[in-house]
Request: fold
Amino acid sequence: MEQVIYGDVFFLVNFSMDFLALYLTAKLSHASPKLWQLVTGGVLGGLYATVALFLPSSVEAVSTLVFPFLLSAVVFGVSRATALVKKALLFFAVSFVMGGVMTAVYYYAGRLLSQKGIYINGEVETLYSDLPLWAIGLCAAWAAFIASLFSRYAKKKAACRSAELTLSDGERSVTLRALVDSGHFLEEPLSHLPVIVVTKQTMEALLPPHFLPVFFSLAADLSTLSDEEKLRLRFVPIVTVGHEGILRGYLPDAVLVEKEEKKALVVCDEAASDFEGFDAILPPTLIN
Reply:
């Protein structure tokens, strides 16, 4: 028995589903892709789904596993390999939820709306290929609604992992959205102050202009700093898997976590542009 597939309708359905899945993935991961990036992702998803119809089954199986990573790289960018993997896996999960709901609704809608049937192994099975377009649209809308509820629930659960952080020094002040990392217990070794990790861009906005050359160069002349400013400059050794190093830190005038004053050191991770969509990493000791 031949099955007729209309390429334009098939492309449109997959474009819509991939666009919604990417949008929900962005919401869950606190990413902020532009509209054109989401549209581009939807177009690529629709094109891939259409082309995959003509691929050998073995090639399709492998490419289906690889494609979400390429799609996530196009839509969300590649800042870190771990961030890309997490977004791709999250896209997988959202797609599975939407696909499962779509399949269930499509099945029951087909049994209600389709008038055709065939005998398979003595049982009557419904043919769904003649479903009206509005019914397919209803299935997609319902799948998006269920996935949206899942997104809101997950986002609410994830909200406890974030906090508003305000760093102030003199007349300079920056307000950030910080990730509360339960595994982050880094301390400054002498004072045992908890350590907040920020990006280079944030540190540049916080530090006094004359302090920047000293902070970002270990070979800089410290004589340009006053005694008080020298005490604000700190160094924090770190040891991770396969890596040892030193992070440069600064002691700001004020640290506010959820508008509550705290005492903490701020260090800079120059290699990071963000932290899984957040602006900083907080140790849990500043929340508890």
Notes: The helical segments are 7-28, 35-52, 57-76, 81-113, 133-159, 200-206, 212-215, 227-232. The chain has two domains: 7-158, 162-286.
